[in-house]
Specification:
Layout lengths: L5 E5 L3 H14 L4 E5 L2 H10 L5 E4 L9 H10 L4 E6 L4 H10 L3 E4 L4 H12 L7 H21 L4 H11 L4 H8 L3 H15 L4 H13 L1
Parallel strand pairs: 1-2, 1-3, 3-4, 4-5
């Protein structure tokens, strides 16, 4: 990292970019400062600008495809730190972002002081989360571990059925693709719900996708 860090503010809201500029210029006088307002522009800057140490990334920019876009940014410049600054406070999403390799997450509603702390910590190669978010992420990890143990109870055939449930397929479609009777699929579904301790197909499918991501 250079003595004076370089930043890329990737956000489609001009006022919020200005607010982040104010923080960065105050804390890092003379810093190299770039801006982007959509994912394509963000990626192009990362490909062509070497003097970037940290991306302050909004998730809701135009042409941003969520987790896939974040992964593309990380894969393109793995040495550049990524601090997600987002209005989206979904804990499952935060956990998935951390698994992808972001360095920190801070809500857009945070004070300047909190955002400043997050930037400083991430630049020092630490992982940064607000304390209340960190606690919820740890709880989610524990729950996912427990659910993972439950998935291990399923037979290979039940795993196949569950993967199709997660894709939104009906029992009739699953039976046709697997070449077995629909009544057998119904039996598998009942066993899957019981073993996973969930009440419906939707919950079972969500659980499978979470574990597939892991």
């Amino acid at each position: 990292m250079n003595d004076v860090p370089g930043f890329l503010i990737a956000d489609d809201h001009p006022l919020f970019r200005q607010a982040l500029q104010q923080i960065l210029k105050q804390e890092y006088a003379g810093c190299h400062l770039l801006e982007s307002s959509n994912f394509t522009e963000t990626l192009n800057i990362l490909k062509n600008e070497d003097d970037i140490d940290l991306v302050l990334l909004d998730l809701s920019m135009p042409d941003n495809k969520g987790l896939h876009s974040v992964k593309t940014i990380i894969d393109t410049r793995p040495e550049v730190a990524v601090l997600v600054v987002s209005a989206n406070t979904d804990i499952t999403l935060v956990h998935q972002l951390l698994e992808l390799g972001i360095n920190g997450y801070v809500p857009k509603s945070s004070s300047f002081e909190v955002i400043t702390d997050a930037i400083k910590s991430v630049l020092e190669l630490n992982t940064w989360l607000p304390s209340e978010v960190a606690e919820k992420v740890q709880t989610l990890k524990a729950n996912l571990t427990q659910k993972s143990n439950q998935l291990s109870q399923l037979t290979p055939q039940q795993i196949k059925v569950l993967s199709m449930i997660a894709d939104g397929k009906l029992n009739k479609q699953i039976a046709y693709e697997l070449g077995i009777q629909e009544t057998t699929i119904k039996q598998h579904v009942s066993a899957i719900l019981k073993k996973l301790d969930v009440i419906n197909r939707t919950q079972a499918g969500i659980l499978y996708k979470q574990q597939a991501f892991e």
